[in-house]
Structure formats: C-alpha cells, structure tokens
Model the fold of this input.
Amino acid sequence: MDSSIRSILFLGIGGVSMHQLALCYKKSGYAVFGYDAKKNKYTTICQKAKIPFTTRFNSEFTNVDLCIKTGAIKDDNKYVKIMKLKHIKVIDRAQALADISKEFKCVIAVAGTHGKSTTSSLIYEILRQAKFNVSCHIGADVFSPRFELGDDYLVVEACEYNKSFLSLYPDISVITNVEAEHMDSYKTMFNLRNAFSTFLKRGLVRFAYNDECNMFLRRVKNVKFVDKTDLNISPKIKGEHNLKNISLAIAVAQYLKIDDKIIAKAVNSFIGIPRRYEFIGDYNGIRTYIDYAHHPTEIEAFISTFDEDFKNNLIVFQPHTYSRTKNFLSDFVRVLSKVKNLCIYKEYPAREKRISGMTAYELYKEIKKKNTNVHYSASVKSVVDKIKKYDAIAFVGAGDIDQIAKKIVKITKKKC
Done:
C-alpha cells in the first residue's frame, strides 16, 4: 500500500469480510475507523480491538487517507460522495483484499456458486493442523481464525458477486462448481462462465471439481479435475455436496505434500462452519437447525440430507433478495413444492429495493398452486403458531432467518 496512507475508514465495517480486513490493517499499525448502519457481533469485535466505531457518519471520517467500502455500497451512496468531494480515495473491499494478498508468498483462492466457504475453511484447517504458517480470509466464522501479515500462506474465499474475485491473482485457484447466480451482475451465463474461466486461469496451479456444471472449464489449460476422494475418512459434515468439497480440499492439501494421516485427522475433526446444518437447540423438545442455503440447488441438497435424518420435519425458508427470487422462480417452485411441511418467511431484501423482482409472499402463492401444505409468515409469532409436533425444524436462508430461529428457541428457554 502507498506509504502515505496511515488512516483508513471502513464503510460497512459490520460485514464478515470487512471486519477481518479492518482488524488486519489495525494490527499492521494503521489508524482504523469504522462506520455501519447497525451494530452487530462484528462491530463489537472491532470495538474490542480498539477500532472506533459509530452508526453516525461524522466529519472526523473526512480526515482519513483512504476509504474502503463494502461491495454492497454503491458509488452513488451519499457518504461515498462526501469522501470523493474531500478528495479521499475510495476503493472496494475486493481491491483492499487483493492488495493485502500480495503480501503473502502463496495465496489459495476458492471460488464457486456453492461450497466455497466450507472448502476454503477445510483447506485452512488442514494447513493449520499441518503446522503451516497460514492465515485465512473467509466469508464465514471459522475455528481459530487468523489473518496476519507475515504469514506464508493465505486461504481466501473468492466471491463472484460483482466480479470481485477478479481482483485476485492467486497462486492456487480452486473452483467448486458454477451455476447461474448473481445474474444482476453477469446478465448471461456466457459472462458468468467467462469470469470463472478468467479466475481459474489466474492460478499458477488450478483445481476444479469434475462435475457436469464445470465441463466448460475444460477449455482452460492445465486444470487438475478432482473426483471423489479415495482417502479413508469419516467426516462429520454430511451430504453428497460436502463430500465434493472435502475432495477438493484434500486434493489441494496433497498437492502441498501434506501427509495423508494429517489430512484425514483434520477432515474427521472438522465440524463445519456456522449456519451449515447447525444445531442451535430445542423448541419444546423439537430439534432446531439453521442452514445458509439460499440458491435452489443448495436448498435441494440440504432438504435431501435433512429428510434422511428426520422424516417428520418442518422447513422454514426465507428468500434472499427480490431479484434472486424472481430469477430462480421456477427452480424455487420445483424444489419447494416437494417439501412436506413448508413455511415461507418474509424476504430478506439485503442491498435491494422493491423495484423489480418478487416478494416472499408472491413466491408463496406460486408454490401453493402445487403444494397446498405451505404457509406464509411475516413474524416470529406467526411462525410459532404454525409449529406442531415435528422431529426437527430447519430455518433456511442467507438473511436474518438464523436470528428468527434463535428467538424461537429462546421462547422455550423463557418458558422453562
């Protein structure tokens, strides 16, 4: 980074990636400030690290040398405009991550429509147990997180949203799978696949799972296509999709010449990451889980595994963004109309405004045409009223549905 930069403002510091970057810069000696619209667990972590944080944008912020903004904040944001009027350089989170990654000897970047958090977390865990000098930057909470300049290896979850992963130039590039997603950024499958191909080519060493959705990557030279591992393992994380993630992580670890016994031990002890088939407690004796699945393929994979474990279950699904709900309507209807007991919860709009796209209630009406055993809820009370005697409940989605689930579990604790 430019040696003249000594102070940095993080716009949207409450994100999982943004707060990690802020902590890294703070540890490296920069004066770091944070702004976000709301407090959360990540802003609390930053405050404990002596990073000044506020939910009120103030004039002090215009005295910094650099502003790093989350990708969800657009260039027409009023605070971004203020910074630019003050001639303060503004860069995206993706560029800041790319700049930091240049400080490491070996960068392992994992991209894909599904499974990139799990795969990158497992690669990090294997390297950590193999005593590698390794840091990670992953879009989920991981066990024993570390992000320190001076380490040799960096494991990065490379997000395709807004083409941010094209800021990276990894030493090892990994792709789990490629399906239609973030079409507001890409418009066509050709553009999406071209971006993933470009990302894969950036790696000096290239891995991709040997799956039908990745066949277009065969046009890229020198790719190591990975099949299901034959290593003797007994993983705790469930599902066919996770076996693919595990196989990719093992292939990378074996390329790095890590002993198979160390790899197997790390895989077998890996309990996954939060909001991936995570048990959070009981509601009136009913086992309650949360899962991050928000794309139709992810939802279908989760439901398949959940149905195997619990025959009499309830799925509470929260759509994430209006555009995704509209773009994947037919797939959502196809997958969710098969669910025996289903509740659609009000949508989580994230960065979007209700201009175009589809609401959760509109999705519910479409599903109800094929599945009469579906309900709609827009409040915690409404969900609770619909809970009967099930073996298990799963709250599924990428929005705040996990917080709804935790509130419902707490209702039981209050009764006790």
In short: The two ends are 55 Å apart (CA to CA). Residues 13 and 19 are 5 Å apart (CA to CA).
